[in-house]
Amino acid sequence: MPYRIVLAPGDGIGPEVTAAAQRVIAATGIEIEWSERQIGAGAFETLGSPLPAETLEAIRAADATLKGPTATASGGGYRSVNVELRQKLQLYANYRPARSMPGIVSRYDNVDLIVVRENTEGLYSGLEHTVVPGVVESLRVITQVASERIARFAFDTARRQGRGRVTCVHKANILKLSDGLFLDTCRQVSEEFKDIAFDDCIVDAAAMKLVLDPKNFDVLVMENLFGDILSDLASGLVGGLGVTPSANIGAHGSVFEAVHGTAPDIAGKGLANPTAIILSGVLMLRYLGEKQAADRIEEAVRGVIGAAETVTGDLGGSAGTDEYTDAVIAAMTNN
Ligand code: NAD
């Protein structure tokens, strides 16, 4: 039976980069029944909603979803599709590996860490209200249930990948109740994983230590806002958002997406770097149990970027999206 995968191309460069990922995945020979669904600003214009009910249902029913970036206005306008998707489908775990890429010059070599971010609550609960004109409150919600499931996800991930340590990142010295609960819950879950070391680090110190020496860390687990910031910081350590994949895993679905935006400045020009969404496809294949195909793609990407001959403009090359994608597919057949 083929896997049933939803392709949600999204806005801006989304259609170009997701098409590239689709081609690379097809080259593995894995049988996939793709079903394309609208999401984002384009969906809002044509269907009246950035996250139409039928897209949501298709994602819920699929084996996995590959999603392109979607445009969100800051301030007013509709709510972020990404936040809505994570909450509606309870995609509670955001998984962001940060691994050095050969050929991409960054501050450190051999970075290999994973940021696990709680995806459904914290300051992103969407509970904001005006107390009196000029005074607004945003509620930062931390629950034991959500803390426990994200802690368990982090330890399971560490165990499955043969990693040695999970670090809980928090601010429990100041936020004694909320982050105290998060830290205590992580500590309790760690008791079930005696084969994996556990420690904790205050978020500001964690940011400094990540920049000073990323090898201080292995798997990091944290609540939503800290995870949003530190996962981008980790991406910066390995060459930026253009090559960073991500996965959102939950009880009712899984969504794999690049972490960069819609890049309106280069959209439609065939110049976008599809690496991040291709590597998100790699995470998707691993999630589906297709390790060999995933490894083949990842090695090919690392080979092409390492050779630095056929890379896109953001990586200092002159190749377009299609040319780079062809090079990856060619490298896969040579693997
Ligand atoms: P952006 O990531 O779209 O662009 C920042 C810069 O990086 C631009 O110069 C762009 O050309 C470049 N860039 C990004 N991805 C690239 C790629 N794959 N290849 C080559 N160059 C690339 O960030 P932004 O300009 O802040 O946001 C634009 C829109 O994207 C906004 O509406 C924002 O809400 C949305 N956004 C969506 C997501 C998502 O859906 N996951 C994430 C971030 C931003």
From TrEMBL:
GO molecular function, one term: homoisocitrate dehydrogenase activity
InterPro entries: IsoCit/isopropylmalate_DH_CS, IsoPropMal-DH-like_dom
EC code: 1.1.1.286
PROSITE patterns: IDH_IMDH
Pfam families per record: Iso_dh (PF00180)
Pathway it works in: Amino-acid biosynthesis; L-lysine biosynthesis via AAA pathway; L-alpha-aminoadipate from 2-oxoglutarate: step 4/5
Keyword Magnesium tagged: yes
Keyword Metal-binding: yes
Domain of life: Bacteria
Record's keyword terms, sorted: Magnesium, Metal-binding, NAD, Oxidoreductase
Biological process according to GO: carboxylic acid biosynthetic process; isocitrate metabolic process; tricarboxylic acid cycle
Catalytic function, reaction form: D-threo-isocitrate + NAD(+) = 2-oxoglutarate + CO2 + NADH; (2R,3S)-homoisocitrate + NAD(+) = 2-oxoadipate + CO2 + NADH
Domain Isopropylmalate dehydrogenase-like residues, every copy: 4-328
Cofactor needs: Mg(2+)
PANTHER family in UniProt: DECARBOXYLATING DEHYDROGENASES-ISOCITRATE, ISOPROPYLMALATE, TARTRATE, ISOCITRATE DEHYDROGENASE [NAD] SUBUNIT ALPHA, MITOCHONDRIAL
Similarity section: Belongs to the isocitrate and isopropylmalate dehydrogenases family.
Subunit: Homotetramer. Dimer of dimers. The homotetramer can transiently dissociate into homodimers.
Cited function: Catalyzes the NAD(+)-dependent oxidative decarboxylation of homoisocitrate to 2-oxoadipate (alpha-ketoadipate), a reaction involved in lysine biosynthesis through the alpha-aminoadipate pathway. In addition, has high activity with isocitrate, but is inactive with 3-isopropylmalate.
Protein name, per record: Isocitrate/homoisocitrate dehydrogenase
Organism of derivation: Pirellulimonas nuda
Lineage: Bacteria, Pseudomonadati, Planctomycetota, Planctomycetia, Pirellulales
